[in-house]
Amino acid sequence: MVEHDGADIRGQKDIGRLLLRCADRPGLVAAVSRFLAETGANIISLDQHSTEPIGGMFMQRTIFHLPGLPAARDELERDFAVQVADPFGMDFRLTEAAKPKRVAVMASTEDHCLLDLLWRNRRGELDMSVVMVIANHPDLADAVRPFGVPFIHVPARREIRDEAEQRQLDLLRGNVDLVVLARYMQILTPSFIEQVGCPLINIHHSFLPAFVGASPYRRAKERGVKLVGATAHYVTDDLDEGPIIEQDVVRVDHRHSIDDLVRLGADVERAVLSRAVLWHCEDRVIRYGNQTICL
Amino acid sequence: MVEHDGADIRGQKDIGRLLLRCADRPGLVAAVSRFLAETGANIISLDQHSTEPIGGMFMQRTIFHLPGLPAARDELERDFAVQVADPFGMDFRLTEAAKPKRVAVMASTEDHCLLDLLWRNRRGELDMSVVMVIANHPDLADAVRPFGVPFIHVPARREIRDEAEQRQLDLLRGNVDLVVLARYMQILTPSFIEQVGCPLINIHHSFLPAFVGASPYRRAKERGVKLVGATAHYVTDDLDEGPIIEQDVVRVDHRHSIDDLVRLGADVERAVLSRAVLWHCEDRVIRYGNQTICL
Amino acid sequence: MVEHDGADIRGQKDIGRLLLRCADRPGLVAAVSRFLAETGANIISLDQHSTEPIGGMFMQRTIFHLPGLPAARDELERDFAVQVADPFGMDFRLTEAAKPKRVAVMASTEDHCLLDLLWRNRRGELDMSVVMVIANHPDLADAVRPFGVPFIHVPARREIRDEAEQRQLDLLRGNVDLVVLARYMQILTPSFIEQVGCPLINIHHSFLPAFVGASPYRRAKERGVKLVGATAHYVTDDLDEGPIIEQDVVRVDHRHSIDDLVRLGADVERAVLSRAVLWHCEDRVIRYGNQTICL
Amino acid sequence: MVEHDGADIRGQKDIGRLLLRCADRPGLVAAVSRFLAETGANIISLDQHSTEPIGGMFMQRTIFHLPGLPAARDELERDFAVQVADPFGMDFRLTEAAKPKRVAVMASTEDHCLLDLLWRNRRGELDMSVVMVIANHPDLADAVRPFGVPFIHVPARREIRDEAEQRQLDLLRGNVDLVVLARYMQILTPSFIEQVGCPLINIHHSFLPAFVGASPYRRAKERGVKLVGATAHYVTDDLDEGPIIEQDVVRVDHRHSIDDLVRLGADVERAVLSRAVLWHCEDRVIRYGNQTICL
After folding, report:
1. Do C244 and D225 lie within an 8 Å CB cutoff?
2. Of the candidates B255, C141, C28, which has an alpha carbon nearest to the alpha carbon of residue A294?
3. Is the pLDDT of residue D1 over 50?
4. Which residues of A touch C125 (CB under 8 A)?
5. Helix (H/G/I), strand (E/B), else coil: C174
6. How far is CA C35 from CA A94, C40, D192, in A?
7. Which GO molecular function annotation, any one, does this entry have (chains A, B, C, D) (predicted)?
8. For range A260-289, the mean pLDDT
9. pLDDT tens across C22-79, in order?
10. Can you give the pLDDT at residue A4?
């Protein structure tokens, strides 16, 4: 199971996260850790993965403590680029644990995923700042109100998709680092996905790639499966085909009606989506082709 | 989770199992239990299921204790047919717990499912008599020998399918109540399935309906799923489409190679197949369309 | 896994539940089902259990459909007593699915179990009517308000236990069928448990019997266990020793601090408590000595 | 879930494992990785853990590839001691992946843990060489024979404990790197544990610390728990109190007799013990007080 950063780390102002990716070669770990040591940073944790024993893609996530990080951040980034990233041909990203990601949640009428995200975040379990909830139905406004998060009703259905997406883009663009589709039941166009300018995470109510598309619980019942599941994945232009971040299942049997599958599946959906959002917000998820590496 | 009959029941000579199926209507449970009570039988357990609250298909499995069952069996069957089954339009089956099913296991070169079945059966965990192992490769002969079960090598590959199936049918027909395909890697023809004259259970190395067909672990790796699974199902003419008896999954992540998935999946395969075989041998599995009811 | 009654059953006015318990003997199932058939009732489901193959305690839960049940209920109860229960020496209870149990939830400052019960009930997943929340701290008043359930603050701590319990008894006695302790952190006296006049269900934050008593997560960390769990049980005079209704666990490892165990355990606590409350409200849980039978 | 080294690593002659432990301080990862880089070694994977964010105990496991390792090993060890370990006050251990640990398995009459270890090892799933099986009963000799491992019958019971332990020590001392107690039902004396000169891993048939001591399944049934489990731990002088390496559980209910718990628990025991042995053999398990860190 993927880890999470503890309370000691989350929100601390001198804690940084360094993510990087490059072709694997000897000396990578040494180069990065030497750079950090010489800067005065102490490595708190370091996770790496190579897609192949030799000649694969190398990825590393490093959490470090550096007194004065907020002031030193920009210089650190420049120095790392010159001294390490450029010589090794690395992509990298440097983030501060004290700056949680700004997240918008999009929902329709189902409350379980939305409320679980809001509630966990209020408890401090997730590492994000929910800046708005956008819903294409007004039903969940009352349930969201106690959490103090703006609830914005943007009617959306197939016939008015263009206007709806334009209004959503006006709200989102530049304002959020992540969009979470918490059982948002409208299809988003490739144009929207391109323009929104940040990743989107969706929860699909089946164990993908089984039951791609509509009505997965009904089809699960018809096929007579003994487990139903849920899948959190990044949204791409191909419906239900994006990189999978997390999945889980629950046992069912012949006594369960389709309604029962919906109810039991809801528990799995909210758990899976919450884990995927947490890992994303903690900079743990690296996309690699159509797969994810969760460090 | 489906139950199993305890050691108190398995193999006891006065214990009977009554399975029945008919259109649901009031008075079914009463009619059956009154019949048994008047016969002097004591109901040890009774499980029933109706596919709909009203107007569905009714299924019931009853375990009862009747002193002198072996001698009384035939008369009991006739009386039940006349007094209960015919009036209610029931299909039914009456079996004796003391007569375990005769089972043939078909295997190729992978030992994990085959050996787990043989081990569990030697320990008394399964309720069957393994009368032969048929393999299309000789590799597993040594591993089977200590169990005292005949190992029969019947070479089989696409080019000689007809001769192979004929030899297999000669061995199986009339001699077994169940054929278990324990990672038997050859496709069996509809003609074979029809002629063999008993049910076949197969283990497929994926969580069906995901990854139907060949190389499921490789395709699971390519899709980046976070769980891999296995499915035990009855064999029908449509490959991997038969009624599912049991499924399970195990968690995997980016660090696992395809070989790792094969290794981790093997544990799930053997557990799932063993449960499916046990439930079948205890007359718990009722086929209903392309689904199973496991009572 | 224990089942639940589907949406077809819950709240329907002509659906009854019959629970009974007596020394096992032949003819019990027949007598009960004949009685119901002759009354015009159709058995929807029937689950029974005997603690021993012969000579044990027999328990049965029967769901039936009887047109006109609300009007016929009292007479049905009398007739069953005379015709079946008395001759067989049965304890029994007849309830109507249309009359959900009246439940009080007692809480302190932790919101996860309380909110999950209220959420699930609002979604129609549980089969109860929450008539009040009693808390010994005012903290959760705002979180409860949107659910439209009375929130009553009754300060309680060791020094004022007698007055607090008296106030609680004044609120509860005669008004509720079940009290749920949703991480209510005060010990209740045997006198309270006796006087409250209905069962109490508690959630303990460990996998009992491991870590009975205070600070189970801290002690779990110190012992280095690899799983932490939660246990829902009926409250008896012996702390953490009452009959267990449901338990579950979650995997942890060396990277988890005590705070992490608290966070991960909270998910298990709320899931386990919700299942136990549902099963109790559906009349599925039969106490037998210090164990429970969940039919 | 703890990882395992892939087939790419296991048994490769140029792959080394470096385990180390010291008080945490800045620059540790850098110092070790620089040393390896300068030696010409390529880091394949690196896992570390610190028991506290600041001021804790630091542990690291590094897998590296160094051409010519077998010849260079001794010099590498000396250099690392002088250049890194001594300055930082480290304990460390350097092992070669090509040299599997020599393991003795001790058993009594239960075959499930023993056979699962032997079978997995034959498949190449474990990273060990089983050099002998010592049993205090002759029952399992036939089952062990096909695996080609010496089976040595050393009668042992309370009355002849001293002689038995002396014979066992004569067999084990100097010949094995690990002793696995695979449901070996005799208590070993502190003197034996001290003299045997290598770690011992035991499988206890309960979810410790629940049901320490004898007859855990019977006591689990009596307490009415809803899950039963198994625990693999290092053996210390305190029975069932040693550092836990791995645990798992399986769901049970009121229908299961004690015999059923034994049967279902056996599956958990063999899985848990196999994982613990694998992790130990791959140098993943670091003892820290009475806990284990599994990297």
Report:
1. yes
2. B255
3. no
4. 263
5. coil
6. 74, 9, 68
7. formyltetrahydrofolate deformylase activity
8. 95
9. 998 888 988 998 999 899 998 888 888 888 877 789 999 999 999 999 999 999 999 9
10. 59
Residue A7 has pLDDT above 90, yes or no: no
- Whether the per-residue pLDDT at A11 is higher than 80: the answer is no
CA distance C87 to C84: 6
What are the backbone dihedrals phi and psi of residue B239, each rounded to the nearest 5 degrees, phi first? -50, 125
CATH classification code of D15-96: 3.30.70.260
Q: Best of A61, A233, A254 to disrupt the B interface by mutation (most B CBs within 10 Å)?
A: A254
Residue whose C-alpha is closest to residue D126's, from D287, D282, D290 = D282
The encoded tokens of residue A6 equal: 């503890």
Query: Would you state the structure tokens that stand for residue A201, as one six-digit string?
Result: 């995470």
Residue D110 token pair: 């239960």
What's chain B's Rg over C-alpha atoms?
21
Under an 8 A CB cutoff, do C257 and A8 touch? yes
CB A230 within 8 A of CB A204: yes
**Interchain CB distance below 8 Å, D50 and A45:** yes
- Chain D residues whose CB is inside 8 A of the C53 CB are none
Percentage of residues in chain A having pLDDT higher than 70: 96
Tell me whether residue A111 is one of the annotated catalytic residues.
no
Task: Tell me how close the Cα of D108 comes to any Cα of chain B, in angstroms.
Answer: 15
Residue pairs spanning C and D at CB distance below 8 A: 78
Identical fold for domains A15-96 and A101-294, yes or no, is: no
pLDDT-based confidence at residue C10 (cuts at 50, 70, 90): low
- Give the start-to-end residue ranges of the domains of chain B: 15-96, 101-294
For position A26, what pLDDT does the model report?
83
Any residues with CB less than 8 A from the CB of D24 and at least 6 apart, and which?
A: D50, D51, D52, D54, D55, D56, D57, D58
pLDDT at C51 (0 to 100): 85
Residue C1 has pLDDT above 50, yes or no: no
DSSP B206-222: S-TTTT-SS-HHHHHHH
**β strands within chain D, DSSP E:** 15-23, 42-50, 57-65, 91-96, 101-107, 128-135, 151-153, 178-181, 200-204, 227-234, 244-251, 285-288, 291-294
Contact C60, C48 (CB under 8 A): yes
Please state the rounded mean pLDDT for residues D8-13: 71
Domain at D101-294: CATH architecture: 3-Layer(aba) Sandwich (3.40)
Q: CA of C42: which chain B residue's CA is closest?
A: B26
Answer yes or no: are the C-beta atoms of D19 and D58 closer than 8 Å.
Answer: no
| β strands within B15-139, DSSP E | 15-23, 42-50, 57-65, 91-96, 101-107, 128-135
Q: Are C64 and C15 in contact (CB under 8 A)?
A: yes
Share of chain B above pLDDT 90, in %: 83
Q: Which of B4, B7, B259 comes nearest D6 by C-beta?
A: B259
Beta carbons of B224 and A249 less than 8 Å apart = no
Whether the pLDDT of residue C4 is over 70: the answer is no
Residue pair A272/A246 in contact (Cβ under 8 Å)? The answer is yes
Residues of D with CB under 8 A from a CB of A: 1, 6, 8-9, 25-31, 33-34, 36-37, 40-50, 53-54, 65
pLDDT in tens, D107-163: 999 999 999 999 999 999 999 999 999 999 999 999 999 999 999 999 998 999 999
All residues of chain B having their beta carbon less than 8 Å from the beta carbon of residue A292 are 224, 254
Pairs across B and D, CB distance < 8 A:
41
Helix (H) or strand (E) holding A220: helix A216-223
Chains contacting A (3 or more CB pairs within 8 Å)? B, C, D
Q: Is the pLDDT of residue A222 over 80?
A: yes
Nearest-by-CA chain A residue for B285 = A254
CA distance A252 to B1: 9
Residue from D111, D116, D177, D240 carrying the catalytic annotation: D240
Local structure of residue D182 (DSSP, 8 states): S
